[in-house]
Amino acid sequence: MKHASMAIFSPNIKAISAALLLSASGVALAQTDKPESEKKNIERIEVTGQKTIAQLKKAFDKQRFEFLDLYNTINETAKYDMLCSYERTIGSKIAKKQCEPRYLKDFRAMAIQTSSDSPGINFERLPTDDHLQFLTKEKREKAFEHVAALIATHPELYESFSKLDALHQRIEARKDLAKEDNE
Description:
By secondary structure, the protein is mainly α. It contains 6 helices and 2 strands, in the order H-H-E-E-H-H-H-H. 64% of the residues lie in helices and 8% in strands. The protein starts with a helix and ends with a helix.
């Protein structure tokens, strides 16, 4: 008999428990829809950090190489390509990425070849970087005009250059702030 009476109440118990669950979920939903005036004010704390000058310089270098890669893909004039390679300074084992335009690299190679009358390289007559900069001044000005024209006509190159410029301005602002703090 016990099993028969339990069988009769079983559907009723299921229906009652389902009704209780549904009504409880309705109450829970009703509780979340409070008007703005009844909600508690929660204090909000915003934390902003500043990058160090070294971190900004690292971000600048990363953005500079991204800009140069994009520039090289867009540029169609070979003499204005930027050639990058890893080089170590004398006495250091740390290689740094150095970039220079193709016209300067070609001019340096020609200057080295013509610097000596005898076979081999005469290190005393090699041109310095300042001397090479002076001798290629006109080409450098044309290269700047070429880069400016590409930036003006390619939005993605302009956007990359804008990021580079923003990082440069942040670095200069941080340097100025550091100078003011030291005075």
